[in-house]
Amino acid sequence: MNLDIESKTQIQEKRCTVYFDCACPLCSKEIATYKQWRGAESILWIDASACPEYELGSELKRDTALARLHVRNADGELEQGAAAFIELWTHFPAMAWFTPCLSQPMTIKLLDTLYRLFLKIRPLWRKPPPKNTSVCPTHPLPPTES
Q: What Rg value do the Cα atoms of the chain yield, rounded?
């Protein structure tokens, strides 16, 4: 993992890092809901549509991060798709009891198939971010020079 010192420190303080697409209205609403749940304060939330490239780490490219949900667990391993959701849900007390059932290989395969089907229609909701504005409050854009 090739992150700068500040990002490494943030990740070490958090139990997992979620890379999400805030330019997708449905995705951003889902993440906004998660952020209100107990346990969310220990998660580092990265808007892959607007973050600096280095916040994604060396093995995650922006187009890949925007294509589906990615979660880096506390050990630095990158999960994607259904496995990423399951990793995320383990950090919420309201969902943690449920995740061992979902973590079975056949269940992950089924959930990943359903997620891939959803990803085929997701572009209908995704909008390009307006110029010179941030679509998410997690990473405001720097002021432009006049």
A: 15
pLDDT for 25-51, tens place per residue? 888 899 999 999 999 999 999 999 999
SS (H, E, C) 68-95: CCEEECCCCCEEECHHHHHHHHCCCHHH
pTM across the whole model:
0.74
Range of 57's domain? 5-124
d(CA 29, CA 21): 10
134 within some domain: no
What is the count of structural domains for the chain?
A: 1
46 DSSP β-pair partners: 19
Estimate the crossing angle of helix 105-121 against helix 82-89, to 10 degrees: 110
70-72 and 16-20 beta bridge pairing: antiparallel
